[in-house]
Specification:
The chain has 295 residues and is an alpha/beta fold. It contains eleven helices and eleven strands. The strands form three sheets. It has a five-stranded parallel β-sheet with strand order 4-5-9-10-11. A three-stranded antiparallel β-sheet has the order 1-2-3, covered by helices on one side.
Length: 295
């Protein structure tokens, strides 16, 4: 079986900023990029053609919501997310960890996973790293995220460390499950080539986030993701950044200033808050870009 068709090349630099190209099984994405949210397999108010016409190269869907409705098996039977939603470009799925976390009193976190009640009908569910990985593989996204434990802003250092270390254990469990599925040819994603990204945790404590960056980098993911704090919310607004070659060039394995280099690296793919940054050196124009009105 051939490996996932993923590659990342830095094309231009301007100081600490870099522009590049990410190759996925469903096409190439120029970085940095804006990632519209199609939580339930649709960008609300827009058709897939309108999303593409607006300049979007990749979209994000959420495994938690799709797991609850219409269900992973339904999406799988309809040919996976791309056919289900009529989008032929790259897709990234979140694992559902934050959504389960946001259930508040309706959820309970243990070392095994997150038990929660559906916001739709109150039914009880239990997300484990293995199930979260299998769900995303069944949905058939190009890029899937590890299951992690989000931690609320203002949590104690002890609580943040506990969540971080649990995230590290879950990351290894997700990686092992994904590797096993690839080897056995199980699941849409693993069978057709799919990248698994790790997630860095550690709350607002720089030392813990640096420690987490080193721990996640020790697992040979296709990429890593830096969970970001947003005001008084938990670590939810994720940053997207490059695959292994970029993470290594950013110095993540050295532990020396790794967190700051991680911050710089994430700008190359997703920008701050997922918003594209323009003017970071010259970059090749997208096809037919010259025909579009200037922004």
């Amino acid at each position: 079986m051939t490996g996932p068709r993923f590659n990342f090349q830095v094309q231009h630099t301007d100081g600490g900023a870099r522009a590049g190209e990410l190759e996925t099984p469903h096409g190439k994405v120029l970085t940095p990029f804006f990632m519209p949210v199609a939580t339930q397999a649709t960008v609300k108010g827009l058709t897939p053609e309108e999303v593409k016409a607006a300049g979007a190269q990749i979209i994000l869907s959420n495994a938690y919501h799709l797991y609850l409705r219409p269900g992973v098996e339904t999406v799988r039977k309809m040919g996976g997310l791309h056919k289900f939603m009529g989008w032929d470009g790259p897709i990234l799925t979140d694992s559902g960890g934050f959504q389960a976390f946001s259930m508040g009193p309706l959820r309970k976190v243990t070392d095994d996973g997150i038990r929660f009640r559906s916001h739709i009908d109150g039914s009880e569910h239990n997300f484990t790293p293995q199930l979260a990985t299998a769900n995303q593989e069944g949905l058939g996204a190009d890029i899937v995220m590890c299951f992690d434990q989000c931690i609320a802003y203002g949590a104690s250092e002890k609580q943040v460390r506990q969540a971080m270390e649990r995230t590290h254990r879950w990351a290894q469990a997700c990686f092992d499950a994904h590797q096993a599925h690839q080897k056995n040819g199980a699941g849409n994603g693993a069978a057709t080539g799919q990248a698994l990204f790790g997630i860095v945790q550690g709350g607002t404590i720089p030392e813990l986030r640096d420690e987490s960056a080193r721990a996640i980098s020790a697992i040979p993911f296709h990429s890593r993701q830096n969970a970001r704090r947003t005001g008084t919310t938990c670590t939810a607004a994720y940053m997207r950044f490059s695959i292994n070659t970029l993470a290594q060039s950013a110095g993540l394995r050295t532990g020396r200033g790794g967190l700051e280099r991680l911050r710089q690296a994430r700008l190359e793919l997703g920008g701050e808050g997922g918003c594209a940054r323009r003017g970071v050196g010259e970059r090749p124009a997208r096809e037919n870009e010259s025909e579009k009105p200037a922004a």
